[in-house]
Amino acid sequence: MASSRHEVGAKSYPWLVYILAPLLALGLQSLLSLHFGFFALIDLPLLVTIYYAISRREPISATLVGAAIGIAQDGLTHHPLGIFGISKSVVGYVAASLGVRVDTEHRGTRMLLTLAFSLGQTAVLFLLERHMLGQPYAWQWLHELLKGTLNALVAVILFALLDLTRSRE
Amino acid sequence: MESFFSRYRNALVLIAVLLAQVIGLATQVRRPGQSASDKGSVRLIRAWSVGLVSIPERLLHATGHGIRGVWMNYVDLIHVRQQNKSLQSQLDSLRLEEASLAEDARQGQRLQTLLGFQEKYIYRTVAAQVIGTSGTEQSHVIFIDKGSKDGIAADMPVITPDGIVGKTRDVFAHTSQVLEISDVTSGAGVIMVDTRIQGVLRGNSWGQPEIVNLSPDGRIRAGEPVVTSGGDSIYPRGLAVGTVDRVVSQPEGTLVNVLVKPAANLARLEEVLIITSTGSQMPAAMQTDLSDAQQRASDILAERLPSREDPNAPAANAQGQSGQNPAGQATKTGPDLSLPTPPPQPPAAVHPDRYSTSSVPPADEMVPGQRASAPSVPSATSSGQPAAAPDSGSGSAAAPRHPAAPSGNTAAPKKSSAPAPGTTPDTSSVPVKKPPAQPPATTTPASPAPAQPKPATPQPAAPQRRN
Questions:
Q1: H or E stretch covering A68
Q2: Region A141-157: what's the mean pLDDT?
Q3: C-alpha angle with apex B192: B167 to B185, nearest 5 degrees?
Q4: Which of B30, B361, B376, B399 meets the CB 3.0–4.6 Å disulfide criterion with B345?
Q5: A118 touches chain B (CB under 8 A)
Q6: Predicted complex: ipTM over 0.90
């Protein structure tokens, strides 16, 4: 069932979109956070990773895309490379695996998935930073829920925009 | 076996990717004391990431800057003239303030030289535009549009006119990464201005700078300024850091952390200065500024005052002054603390009579040994030099300075000269600690002693001080 659903629902995109969308996400994330402080709560690279994972429904490619986007995001921080890489690899793999089983075209589903993956990524970051690197990492449920909800709302708009870039079959 | 790999292919790829990244992560973790710089391959990946992101950021920033420049420089010029006038006034006030601080600065420098203290002066700064951030909450990092080609190196302090921002971390050719003081991994030596408590400033998990691991001290109050202590060998001493926000106890232990509200607005940084060169000698430009400060302040005061002559001063004062100090050096305006405080000058008489000070001829017209034509006598001149032996108890002889005339119409009190032969010793020349109360009119009682006007002896020039 999974494979048939994968074959039916998988979307393809022009190769340029695979390059430009993550770069644009990284650039906008870096630039908008400078002028709008609340934008640091939104994680555009995470949303792009989730979108391609649930659209392509290929866990291997989603894992690799997540790793690449995460490492590029690590490059903009002063943290060791791999913090965001690991977390986005996990998110990409799980999102692609779930995308086979649930209807990812529905807005409500997309919102719930994004909320869950936002919390999941923070949990992985918390584990890596706090228990692997020994760095302080603040976890506050209210803050994380607010962050996840904000990302879910932005995801609805962003996913609709990215849907427009699909290749016509 | 083949079926195992094909069946668990996805999971195996995920494990392989994660394992590779964990190993890569482990190789980057540094022990305390190791250099903070990245290894070659890591640095290369960072350079690629920053290069890819910084190019569109530069373009967007330049476009926005251009549009804003056109609007600000050609369109939005309302109230500019009024603002310019206000700023000019503010500049004058600051120049006066600078003049008053210049002497303190020189004195401080002399004392530091005596104590062998190595002060760091800022020699050169490079202005840079902030073009981006890390984009995450966990990493308080900004990117600036200046790099190694512009003379930037790692661990250079980054400041704004309001206060410190952080230090440069990774420097690329045309871009640099700045680690803010609000980051968990940052560190700066700071000192609280009032309590003189020193500590290490770093960011907490919520991105607010705090001075960590201090002993509880009841003197620490909110609002106390915090400046750099210079102990970290990165930030020069005395740069503004912020103000104390509140004191929080550590969950474990007896120490406290002091949360600091940063002086620089770290959330809205647009332009920063990178200190690229410091030294122990005061820069020539700063020395020139200090030297010119007093001169400029004097000019400003001269422009503000209607004239250097006090219009409220009695006419006799001017006469006496001109007679006694023809060189015109009695333009002292400020109080001279090195000399005894003279008694106040009596105001001008409404109805002058023979006892009025104005009826006394100038000293240069007097002849030694000859009585003055006027029946009056000894009267005080405005210079503080009693003309002859007056009633020592009156205290009215020495009236050198009009308290309400700071503009230079009075001279500094002069040292008493020896009395001329045959004259009564000038008792009034003894410094009077507290003059008796003066009548409103200058009705100085005449002394019954023979009047011996003092010859116009050359007076030592009063120490002149600029305003």
A1: helix A59-76
A2: 93
A3: 30
A4: B399
A5: no
A6: no
